[in-house]
């Protein structure tokens, strides 16, 4: 079992990493606010990275809309904004390292073939856990589709980490995930590889994001180990849900909170509701006043 709890020895560097698939809504504002507050409460650096690798889902111009909305809310990032599509050479290098170590391999399997393999193994209720079909090479005549990372076999596959909000969380990589994709069949880089490489290259010490990404963390920690990269600390905040209990997102009809009106109206319509969702009792009538109250409130909430 691998357990991770990094010590805070370096200056704090946090980040917000939106995908340009739609404008920011209340759920994404909560994630942005939590990461921003945590960076400011630690007198640290706050970066913004646009995760635009999934080009089929990107919406033209939304990246600039997101950046404008952050600024209208009074959240100013440090340094230059980065775009993942400008960083693919870094992912190429990481894949070469993994292949050289024998930690990655090509896979020819489609989702249907994986599901069919699970049925044969009597695992139809386990989700699409990869059964390792291509671990020892491709079948004759089968072309490579994706690249996968080889995870440890059970019983040495359990990975645990101590989340700053949720506490100790564990995942059995082989049983719950299997060898996971690091470059997709469509040629796009997978989130797991890109986020690990980016966080390390940018020196990120603390990742604050939504709890919907909690189960991705053990895979990222394992990948960090394979690549010899440092572990950030993690804090996963609750996600905002709609009336049906679904995560608020573009797919579930989430509406943009920023309509382009007077930015000061965002204090009551967006900033205070997001802060309350995070458990902060903040009263303010201006954007500047909001952050003057919210940053110490967050710091106080973090104090044991």
Automatic annotation (TrEMBL):
Residue ranges of the motif 'HIGH' region: 18-28
Motif residue range(s): 'KMSKS' region: 247-251
Keyword Chaperone set for record: no
GO cellular component: cytosol
EC number in record: 6.1.1.-
UniProt GO MF annotations: ATP binding; glutamate-tRNA ligase activity; zinc ion binding
Keyword field: Aminoacyl-tRNA synthetase, ATP-binding, Ligase, Metal-binding, Nucleotide-binding, Protein biosynthesis, Zinc
InterPro entries the UniProt entry points to: Glu-Q_tRNA(Asp)_Synthase, Glu/Gln-tRNA-synth, Glu/Gln-tRNA-synth_Ib_cat-dom, GluQ/Sye, Rossmann-like_a/b/a_fold
Cofactor comment text: Binds 1 zinc ion per subunit.
Pfam families to which the protein is assigned, alphabetical: tRNA-synt_1c
Chain positions recorded as ATP binding sites: 250
Family per record: Belongs to the class-I aminoacyl-tRNA synthetase family. GluQ subfamily.
Protein name: Glutamyl-Q tRNA(Asp) synthetase
